[in-house]
Amino acid sequence: MAPRFQVKSNMKSLEQELHCSVCKDIVKQPVVLPCQHSVCLMCASEVLVANGYPPPDLPPEPNSPASTPNTRSPRQVRRPTPKSEQRPIDRVLRSGPHLPSPSMPRSPGYGTYQGRRRKEAPPLVMMFPCIPCGQDVELGEKGLTDCLRNLTLERIVERYRHTVSLGSVAVMCQFCKPPQALEATKGCADCRSNFCNECFKLYHPWGTPRAQHEHIPPTLNFRPKVLTCPEHDQEKLQFYCRSCQRLLCPLCKLRRIHTGHKVLPVAHAYQALKEKITKEMNYIQSNQDTVLSQITQLESSITQTEVNSVSAREQLAQSIRDLTAALAERHSSLTQALESTRKKRGEALSAQVLERRGLMEHAGLMAFTQELLKETDQPCFVQAARQTHYRFSKAIENLQHFTLAADPSFRHFQLDVSKELKLLTDLTFIKAPVAPVIDTQHTLAYDQLFLCWRLPQESAPAWHYSVEYRRRGVVPGGASRGGVRGGLAAARWGWQRLDEVSGTSAVIDRLEMDSVYVLRVRGCNKAGYGEYSEEVYLHTPPAPVLNFYLDSRWGLHADRLVVSKEQRCARSVPGLSLLQAADQALTSCHLTSDLLVGDVAITQGRHYWACSVEPGSYLVKVGVGLESKLQEWFHLPQDMASPRYDPDSGHDSGAEDALDSAPPFCFLTMGMGKIYLPQHNNHHHHHSSHGNGNRDHITNGNGSSSPTGVTYPLPPRLGVCLDFEKGRVTFYDAHSLRPLWEGHVDCSGPVCPAFCFIGGGALQLQELVANRNADQTPVRRVTIQARGSNLNNN
């Protein structure tokens, strides 16, 4: 057995768990709120009344035997009067929370609801401000009526009081005379009273129903034997709904609201919850070293917080002193400049005053002139009067055009401190950068991942950024890799990090093909790291990326097809030949098709590339074809009125005799902001038995269909994946890597990327992320004969 002081210490430590969050004292008659926190019934009622809700009828607080209704001695009245039917707490909980009115009187108990008339206001929904939650908890229409008593907490409180008090407060018999009152030895759960031995035998005689009452140790707070349903009187709570997380009686279980819910017997829920809590408690007890180390770390953090706060306070005071010193220094320099200007202007105006005073009648210049005029020697007069004449001319000019030598006002010496005052008003501690915003228009996954972001305008500046990424185990639109175990393993993959990234973009290489990567970024400055941006998901290409240029050596029609200097962009414009042909045609337009191919020939492996078609293009075809057939098509160009070639199928007029052979070309047609996804014909479906075969385009009900295919809005970028061994070409929406259409092509010889222009249009090959900052020099024509091991295949 544990020592007495140890038991007392353990029970003492329970006290903080037994406090009511409202009164800060040990709970009395606790009720469980919907948020699972417990408060005193009296405290909950007072809080609701303080918030303007009608007060419920509360019983007297059972803190002493004198507050109970059974205080008369059995020797004064031979017939006992213990309460047997309606309990005080039940009467409180069954009292309706609504105000009495003629249309809706107060509800007498559970399970009675008279409804409301039409055009009446909806019933009042009570909101209880839960302090531990920090938010309002909805109690429902019935308020505290739906809140069950926490009998377990009451038992713990009773054991705590008994252990801590150690029998110092005696519970007296409620039926003895006051002078001869004896200490109670038993309590009756049915009578809800305390008895001494004599009174218990007197009021529970053998052979009567009272003899079957349950006797318990003496207590000052009688509780119900079992929890009963708050809506169905005297119905025991025998079930537990895992979906609603509520106890149910047999009648509540039959309600429509619990249809399809996981409802268990309360015994099963009890056993499962008890096992979980036991395991959790054992885990905590087995990790006491970890708890102690964390406590030590937290205490060290508290000490460090105090030290750092003192240091921060000193730095704040020093910063204010520096500002004050800078202001004082600036004040001194500005004052000196103002004083120097004042002195210069004063001297200039004083000189002007002396000059004007010299023009007075009896002043120096006038007196000197009068004496000068008395000179009769002409040569001497002329020699001496020239300077006087110049001074008089200058004085007359100044008299006629009088201006001040200096501006007496100091308007230009007033400081505009509005910006500085605003800066001082907004002066605050430095903040970490807010969450960056990912630029989804420029972020892409190609040969490498390119992530671009920006900081909001209200954000503090960032010194550098941290980019984090990880590979997901679940591909959007598909299942987990490796089943459930693969998904769980993917969930455990950690984040990889690129630290101290300068600028607002980053490139991530060494990626796996056909995988989804999750990326996020956050900024850092003197205040530390800020919040993470929203996570962005990028899907890497399904095959190594093929890098090629447009081949300009096939004798392009210079008047119709123009290739850029970098050989990655091509534009088709109506030329003079088209105008001449249109001038000769009366019933139809004579359109020509211009072919353009890549400077690579594929003979093995799987390869992926992407391009973008200008939405205003008339007709542009993107795909692949046999190099020999493409050259034959180029050297024998056909107009669109000729049925000899169909670029979509690659069959000439005799192709019907060879239905089992794959077509030499495979194209998708785009134009006028749309992309056309054709339906497969019979000979295409014939090849579906080989390998994976052809599959129809992926539709979602948003495209307009025709008997032979459907059209969709043109994606920003179109991806093409060629599997040479299987002779299969798959077209993707390169932005989301969503498959659009799949077809077959004859791979009996080298296959080239091909593009066909009909009318005006423009096309741009997707630039490699690795080549964005490198010199782009077109390479010679090459042949791909080996598989690439990464996403980049030059």
UniProtKB/TrEMBL annotation:
Asked whether the UniProt record includes Zinc-finger among its keywords, one would answer: yes
List, in alphabetical order, the GO biological process terms annotated in this UniProt record: anterograde synaptic vesicle transport; axonogenesis; microtubule bundle formation; neuron migration
The UniProt record lists the Fibronectin type-III domain at 432-543
Write out the ranges of the annotated region (Disordered).
Answer: 54-116, 679-711
Keywords from the named record: Coiled coil, Metal-binding, Zinc, Zinc-finger
- Please give the name of this protein: Tripartite motif-containing protein 46
User: Membrane-spanning regions, if any?
Assistant: none
Lineage of the source organism?
Eukaryota, Metazoa, Chordata, Craniata, Vertebrata
Domain B box-type: where? 224-266
Q: Which organism is it from?
A: Dissostichus eleginoides (Patagonian toothfish)
Every copy of the COS domain together lies at 373-430
Composition bias (Pro residues) maps to: 54-63
